[in-house]
Structure formats: C-alpha cells, structure tokens
Specification:
Blueprint (H helix, E strand, L loop, with lengths): L20 H14 L5 E2 H6 L8 H10 L1 H5 L1 E3 L3 E4 L4 H27 L5 E7 H4 L9 E7 L4 H17 L5 E8 L10 H9 L1 E4 L1 H9 L4 H4 L10 H4 L5 H11 L2 H18 L25 H16 L4
Parallel strand pairs: 5-6
Antiparallel strand pairs: 1-3, 2-3, 4-5, 4-7
Helix pairs in contact: 1-14, 7-13
Length: 316
C-alpha cells in the first residue's frame, strides 16, 4: 500500500522540525482521541491514522523506530496515550469493563429497529461505537431509510425510543436519519470522517457500503478505514421478514402515503421554526433530519491545539 503524505498543514509539522510524516500522523491520531479522554489500541490507531496509508505492521515498526514518537507517547503494551495523560488509560479500561453488556443491549435494540418499515440500515454510533462510553451514555443509532419514506420510518423508530423511556430506560437515541437519496455528507471534515468510520452497521451492510462509496472524500482523512468496523461481525442482526413485509405493506398503502405527507409537513414546520433549537441547526428536509451546524468544531479546535503543541511546539 503506498504511503500518503498528510494533506492538512496542521498535521504536517514545520519544515525545520524533526517530525517525520508517519510520526505526525501518529501524534495527530492519538491527539484526536485525547480530546475524548481515551487511550487507543494499535488496531484503532491504524484504522483511524490521519492521512497516512500503511499496514499495521508498518505502523508498529514506526512506533518502535521512533521510540514512541520521541517520547511523546506512552503505552502499557495494549493502549497508547499522550505522555502525561495516563488518566486516558483508566478511562478506557473503565469503558471496556462495561462494554460487552452495553453492546448486547444495543444489539437487542437493533433487532427491533431493523424490523421497522422502510428502515434499510441501523448503525451504532457515538461513544459506544468508539468503545469509549461512560456510565449514563445513550445508545446512539444512525438510521437510513427508503427514499421518500423517511418520516414514516422515523415515527416507528421514535416509538421504540419512547417505549424504552417508559420501560427499560436503556437510553435508546436514534439521533440521525437520512434516506437513500441523501447518503452524501455535505460537510467534509475530520470529525465527520471519523464518525462515518466509527459507525458499526448492525443491519444493512449493503447500504453502509453504498454510503461509504458516496463519501470517498473520507479516504483523504482516514485512508486505512475503508473496510467494515471489526465489531460488525459479532453484532449484526437480521429482521423477521414476515413482520417487516407486513408493516411495509401497511405503510405503502394510501394510509402510509398520507401519514408521510402529514408527518413530514408537521415535523419540518416545527423543527425548522426560528428559535426552536437552542443552537443553530441545518434544515430538516424530506430526506434528512437536521443536525447542529457546529457539531465537531469544538473537537477539531481542541485537536489542532494539541497537534500544534506536540509537533510544532506552539501553544495557541
């Protein structure tokens, strides 16, 4: 696999310093994870390595050759973190302790969500997908629906969330919906590239692959993160075809068509109303739910500050 030089000047280092491109990539990647107070494994460092294509063996050799990037990293043999930030290891270990039970809950919820009419992909996202959850974190899901049927599908999924809030209280949070007509992400940032690469498709791998194919710009940021996340293998679910077919037959009827028109009009009018949200949001449309416009900007600002200090010796 050919090496690729960092394309972002924030992570390339100054011309007169001694940081090589692979060191800059490693430090940038670990610094990004530091923004979430989390240590990172070698496999994760390879998958999310910023702008530098290589094999995991080449990455390990670079870590050994540079003696953990000239002493700017620390490791316990399993995880890596920025020097002086050992609390990130403790945070990661605590997350791993609760991880399996929480993933089992997410899988159980996904078994229900994948049966909802017109839902074509259910992706686990957020802190749990990053293996970095804390007590009280939600189960975040990214849902993709059929074109022109997003709002009726969303209504069914939201019913699952409401039912959970009244019963098991697992923290089910389906926080983003798009249809197959809106798979391309309009903003091209490191934060969004990471979110797409982190996402674990529990159902609808074919749609996941289509979404990644429509967002090949992410390869510029994360050239090693082109395959399925490792957790997919153990967490994938399948719908009950009889149940899903019956529900879709109902929602494909004139009743379902009327409900789509009613629900989309009602929700878009309400959610797009001036002052409805505390922070600026992108528009809610027929094919996509809106999101906070500045999501990820605080993370990227904190990441760039860390990189400047690590690589360029500057504090901003």
């Amino acid at each position: 696999m050919p090496h690729q030089k960092m394309t972002d000047p924030m992570i390339s280092g100054h011309p007169d310093n001694q940081t090589s491109p692979v060191e800059a990539a490693i430090l940038s990647t670990v610094a990004y994870r530091d923004c979430f107070r989390c240590a990172i494994s070698l496999a994760e460092m390879h998958r999310f390595l910023h702008g530098h294509a290589c094999t995991i063996q080449e990455l390990q050799e670079a870590l050994d050759r540079t003696e953990l990037c000239q002493g700017r990293l620390e490791t316990d043999g399993s995880y890596y973190w920025l020097k002086g930030r050992r609390e990130n290891l403790t945070h990661r270990q605590n997350s791993e302790t609760r991880l399996q039970a929480r993933l089992k809950q997410a899988q159980d919820v996904a078994r229900i969500l994948c049966n909802m009419p017109h839902v074509r992909m259910v992706g686990l996202s957020g802190a749990l997908a990053a293996r970095n959850s804390t007590a009280g974190d939600d189960l975040d899901f990214f849902c993709i629906t059929d074109q022109g049927k997003m709002w009726r599908a969303r209504a069914w999924v939201v019913c699952v969330r409401v039912l959970d809030s009244k019963t098991k209280k697992l923290g089910v949070c389906p926080n983003y919906f798009v249809s197959t007509a809106a798979l391309h992400m309009e903003k091209h940032t490191l934060y969004i590239a990471n979110e797409l690469a982190l996402m674990v498709p529990l159902f609808g791998e074919d749609i996941y692959h289509e979404m990644r194919a429509q967002n090949l710009w992410t390869n510029r940021f994360l050239p090693n993160a082109t395959d399925l996340p490792e957790m997919t293998r153990d967490l994938s679910v399948r719908p009950n075809r009889g149940v899903k077919t019956a529900l879709e037959a109902l929602m494909n009827s004139p009743i379902g068509t009327w409900f789509e028109r009613f629900e989309s009009t009602r929700k878009m009018r309400r959610l797009n109303a001036p002052g409805f949200h505390d922070t600026p949001h992108s528009a809610f449309t027929h094919e996509r739910t809106g999101q906070r416009i500045f999501t990820g900007e605080a993370i990227e600002k904190a990441w760039r500050t860390r990189v400047d200090t690590l690589i360029n010796g500057e504090e901003k």
